[in-house]
Amino acid sequence: MRSSSRPLSSLLRSLFGSPITAWHALALLCALALAGPVLAEVPHKNAKPAYAEEQTILQAEKNSPGQGFGSASSGKVHVDRHYLGQYGSTEGTVILQRGGNTWRLLRNGPIATVSGFLLLATPLLILGVYLGTRPAPLQHNAGRRIERFTRWKRWVHWATAYSFLALAVTGVVILFGKKVMLPWMGHDVFYFVAMLSKLIHNFVGPLFIVCSVIMFVAFVRDNVFRRWDWQWIKGAGGLLSREKIPAGYFNAGEKIWFWGGVVLLGLLMSVTGLLLDFVNFGQTRYTLQIANYLHLVGATLYMVAAMGHIYLGTLGSPDAYRGMREGTVDANWAKAHHEIWYDEVANITPPSPTQPARPGNAGGRRP
């Protein structure tokens, strides 16, 4: 029987359009045979290199990568994958640290995505709460103001708040600006905005830390949890039931914000921020990458909690903002929202219903 298969030379001629000799065919077969081993010699085949140079380095290493993540001799001088220590006194000789691409992918990928979602979803959630449980304005004005915050406490609060807002705005520009602002701003304008944001962020950061420490000292005495705070927590502050739950000078929600936000998240952002701000104290790039992860997580949670704090201090609780702005609150508001504190103040010296409270009498100061 005659075979229907075509000779190899005819097949190759039809594919390449020119006569193929036996030597050509042999060279082609050798190249195909070597292609598999050559590709297999590149370690970390699932890696996602950031630059062509990194792929070249992977090819050069072949089957001889570094010693591993936890080894003191990990990586090679000038090219470092998992290096945890330092080459000599500085890392100045490390030109390419490929762990930086892992950081870049996480920072610009999952972390930025989750952060952006939370920062956009929180205002919408607050709007829904406001529309669904819109607080009624204060029914009756007592005509008597009670001092709630001294001038010193207000200065400390607003200094911390303004420095935080500066960090929040510039931090958002640094994290999302390249994706959101650069396309419509153009490189020249965005360069100026990004550089200015970076400088403001770096210089205001230490100021925010100082303000936070002073704020802790100024307000810690009033944020100690008491037995009645548990009732406030169980009832969610009466947010949904519209029921007034007695509270002290600060309610349980404000205390949770103080300890969880101002103290815990503030400490996290302060420590990681200092590591990132002052890089000439021996930190490795690996340390800075971990610090950046934690800084972004802490900053996102702080901004989300701050949005709730701002809402509850303005639209969510009429007259509360005036207390922090001017230092005094209406007596009826104090009784409705902080009844335990109001009773403590009122029991010092019974106030006159026709005379406004002044420092030293009924509402002059908190005991």
Automatic annotation (TrEMBL):
Q: Which SUPFAM superfamilies match?
A: Transmembrane di-heme cytochromes (SSF81342)
Locate the Cytochrome b561 bacterial/Ni-hydrogenase domain: which residues?
148-318
Q: Where is this region: Disordered?
A: 347-367
Where does it sit, as one GO cellular component term?
A: formate dehydrogenase complex
Localisation: Cell membrane
The alphabetical list of record keywords is: Cell membrane, Electron transport, Heme, Iron, Membrane, Metal-binding, Transmembrane, Transmembrane helix, Transport
| NCBIfam families registered for this protein in UniProt | formate-DH-gamm
Know the name of this protein? Answer: Formate dehydrogenase subunit gamma
**Record organism:** Massilia psychrophila
